[in-house]
User: Fold this.
Amino acid sequence: MKNHIVSSLKYLLKLAILLVAIYGAMYATGTLGITTEELLGTKGVVLAVAVVALAAAYPAYGFVSRTVKASLTDDREEILGAMRQNGYSLHSEGEGTMLFRASAPLKRLWHLGDEQISVRAIDSDHIELRGVRKEVVQSEFRLTSYLIGKRGEQQ
Assistant:
């Protein structure tokens, strides 16, 4: 629960910065379309409530877990290669788990520390990737491609 609140607050910060930048640019160029009083009035309150609601819901839709038919030990090189290609490096490793973090500082900053992807063994033939939706889906796709290539070479 604590992680969900922290993720929501981080996402709220990103949305607030984005909105301030957009409205600031529109104000500076004269294309705002509403007065400053309207923006700080009812319309601004409605926008703020919508942004807070979106940020509160973020942990429910922003994170995902995917299962891949692979072995943490037998397919280790493919897992490491796929994650490296996705911009991640191995941060730590434990009994049946691997934790990857973004290699690029800008990617870490963009995700505000929520960029970790954990890979854990479910059983001897399946692993689970868990983390930010976009990053996990990209990693799953790349890893599946690597595994198809490896299995095709072995036949």
Remarks:
- The chain has two domains: 2-61, 64-154.
- The mean pLDDT is 86.
